[in-house]
Amino acid sequence: MTERDFAYIADKGLNAIRIPVPYFIFGDVKPFVGCVEYLDKAFNWAEKYGLQILIDLHTAPGSQNGFDNGGICGVCKWGQNPEEVEFVLNVLERLAQRYGNREGL
After folding, report:
1. Is 80 inside a domain boundary?
2. Structural domain total, the chain
């Protein structure tokens, strides 16, 4: 996605964008690379064009649902590991702290 996409979406009369993000968005889970700077850009563009963002934490370590969108098909172990549940709650808290007061949320 680029700024041009946000302008196009706004021009078509839509008002919100759902952005799926991984649990490793902050770059603190090896070997995954973080991507929070892209969500920062998305918020800047959304606000520029009067759009809202729905942040969708789309994955959890060990898979949250057993489907391929969790990164591991046929496995659903996340809810069985208290440390991983706590890690995901921490990611959600960090997202809330970073974006909670943004106009585009």
Report:
1. yes
2. 1
SS3 state of residue 53: strand
Helix (H, G, I), strand (E, B) or coil at 83: helix
Q: Would you call 46 helix, strand, or coil by DSSP?
A: helix
87 and 79 Cβ atoms separated by less than 8 Å:
no
Contacts of residue 88, defined as CB under 8 A and 6 or more positions apart, other chains included, come to: 23, 57, 60, 61, 78
Give tens-digit pLDDT for 66-84: 566 666 677 666 777 788 8
Mean pLDDT (the chain, rounded) = 90
Q: Is residue 105 part of a domain?
A: no
Q: Which domain holds residue 61?
A: 3-99
Enter the DSSP assignment of 75. -
The model carries a pTM of: 0.88
Structure confidence at residue 66 (pLDDT): 57
